[in-house]
């Protein structure tokens, strides 16, 4: 079974040529992110991913996390790997230096987190949740809460979780019942939460839970939800660990995949917690965590797709079966020589590279939204981040399932056998379009909170940026990039038409708009990925034209991959646009259409 190898050449190409790390490093507070430091971080992260995390991926899947009377226990090797992770300073990479962080750009952190998740997604879920909890406390926690929790969480010696879901509520957070009863200077939390990632484990000395609950006088619905910080072990005023809090992991979920990640059922039996921010604003605060987590889950989709591609490519290069087409009486060849296998591999590669580029560009926009000295630029980039996060989350995770499934197909019957490892990526990927908001929720967010809320303004800005690439591709001039140009032009036109349809249709038929929301999200993702793929082809062609590079093969492959994407992936835009605008038909008006008889 092959170990993960970070695709550093492509990562550096995206960071340097598509993102423009020199521009990011010029932002206030990021001046220390100079090229030598960035290269060193990428190299060391790749080594850690390959040598420490990747070997635990398959063994962790087989063993899984376990629960006994002492609590939840990580799979063998995970605690030791986590200590190395903390000792290497990896948890603090993008955190505020005031609390011990390194203050590095999100764009760089995105590349590093892709490595962690590709090498071992079950392991990487732990720091993913901790990062979200850090961000929420940093933005809305009290000074006392920040001083008590953030240094240890940034360091990584304490981890964090978010506790939202309850058995009767699911994604309907308005239905949560967990109670918070005032007592002296704190609250007593009573209730049960499910699906809590790393809700309990033995890798750190404390776990800091962020918990949604209702105050006694809270209004009904989402307006009555507050946020509380509830540590596993109480913390003294001097920062020392105190007695165990009244919170217990009463079960671990038995899951399809990510077996080594303990997904806990948590019982709060009068646990002591403190209010975060103002009463009844908990859902608003939790969305701070959730929005970043949604981006990170999209990144997980990219990572698991990359890992599945590497696994399938290695198998295809080494599996000898059949003779090459058109060679009569020839020797048997590796299946990578067969046209359909190559088509499948290219479908994996082209989508992974497009998704990676889009995610890194969105991360760079987040850096600019937070650090750019010009307020208008900050606002423009924040609007782009808000618009594209549901696309990154929804499109990348749904694509990850398809890509991992293609990886199994390339293995043939051996892909269905657990020992080859291909099936694990498909099992692990299946959760990604579900947690942190299903694909339907992401699509409703894209339509309702993004496109409709600003009457399509941010979408029009994104479409205008996409059109700029057409100029670089040569407009109507015949050249080597004409197929890429034509495919992107058609995709942009269809996306623009679909956005206009949403704006025109929603006032009189919102059901039809939401019926087509998921196809619209996929359309947006495919076209946005084509936008970045085309940008990569333009830059590669410029390098080749200059004639002074040492990697002509890499740049020719970039152009060929973009061409494949245009022919095989962007060409799906017409069907998605039709489904988005016309797919509801009579389904919504005929009650019997879903009758069991």
Description:
The protein has 597 residues and is of the alpha+beta class. 56% of the residues lie in helices and 13% in strands. Strands 3, 4, 5, 6, 7, 10 and 11 form a seven-stranded mixed sheet that branches. It has a two-stranded antiparallel ribbon with strand order 1-2. Helix 6 runs antiparallel to helix 7, helix 10 packs across helix 18 and helix 11 packs across helix 17. The protein is globular. The protein starts with 7 loop residues before the first helix and ends in a 15-residue tail after the last helix.
Offer a quick outline of the entry.
The protein has 597 residues and is of the alpha+beta class.
- Helical content (DSSP H or I, runs of 4+): 55-70%
- Derived from helix and strand composition plus strand pairing, the structural class reads alpha+beta
Shape: globular
Give the uncertain stretches in residue-range form: none
What percent strand?
A: 5-15%
β-strand number: 13
